[in-house]
Input
Amino acid sequence: MVYLTRRAEFSASHYYHNPEFTPEENRRIFGKCNNPHGHGHNYTLEVTVRGPVDPRSGFVMDLAELKEVLNREVLDAMDHRFLNKEVPEFRDRIPTTENLAIAIWRRLQPKLKVAELHRVRVFETPDLFVDYYGEP
Output
């Protein structure tokens, strides 16, 4: 089994707000991230796939195909977007880094035909990242 990772970067804005919380709870739990005007991040995304090496091509999967799926399913949909308002997954879900990793997994997993999606890693800052390995 060989693991192959592709890295991409994108920028997006968001805010954290739970309508079930009181305004005070939202401010206490989410702090500055509860600003309804939002704030932005430059994210780094790593997508790792795994599989056997095809003896004919020498690939786990064609890197151009992985890049195309990543661009179409994630970057085109999320780069320079206000996640809460422009990305359907976050209309009713708080766009935390954890939920972002899950949403990206769910977008990519059904689109990969040759290799198996192994991990989605989302860096919010250089020292904060989330690893997601799919549903248990």
Observations:
- The longest strand covers residues 2-14.
